[in-house]
Amino acid sequence: MPDARFLVVFDADSTLLRNEVIELIADEAGRGAEVAAATEAAMRGEVDFAASLRSRVAELSGVALDAFARVRARVEPTPGARELIATIHERGGVAAVVSGGFHEILDEIAPALGVDVWRANRLGHDGRVLDGTVDGDIVDAEAKAASLRGWAAERGIPLARTIAVGDGANDLRMMAAAGLGVAFNAKPAVRRQADLVVGPIDLRELVPLLP
After folding, report:
1. Among this protein's residues, is 13 annotated catalytic?
2. Which one is catalytic: 3, 11, 116, 131?
3. Does residue 82 sit within a domain?
4. Active site (annotated) includes residue 171
């Protein structure tokens, strides 16, 4: 792969996107409130992320695959997302997303925003409905950090020229691995440990941080 000047890795839910996508899918099963409460606890770091994700995904059992079109229609990019990604490209950088969410949503949303590379979880199904499982290894905190390191290495980018942007406890390891860890729309524990805290919910606030 060709070298790039720098790399910016975003979390998806509540960072690059305004929504928590698992809650939108849970709405299709009538279980949105229960899943939202569990998601909030996971993002605060109160429970193990992988165990929490498995329990939340179990609540999605029976949701029809054709529900994804309705879910994608409800997903809202965070204000400034397209402008920030366009600026990253103008300056010779790479925009990436690593998410504890799902490829079933990101595979359409990410390229539409101009994201270059992304990684997320996959939902198990029988070809018609979700079976309540995660298919394959879970993208957790360590997987997020490993993705940042791997994408940087593939493109010849020193870690010092990487930026990680996240909001939840499962973003802390990738934020620590990056040259600059930015807490955006973040939980208190994340704000305390980040290199930089961005308050306004507008991704254009990050443009001055780009090399």
Report:
1. yes
2. 11
3. yes
4. no
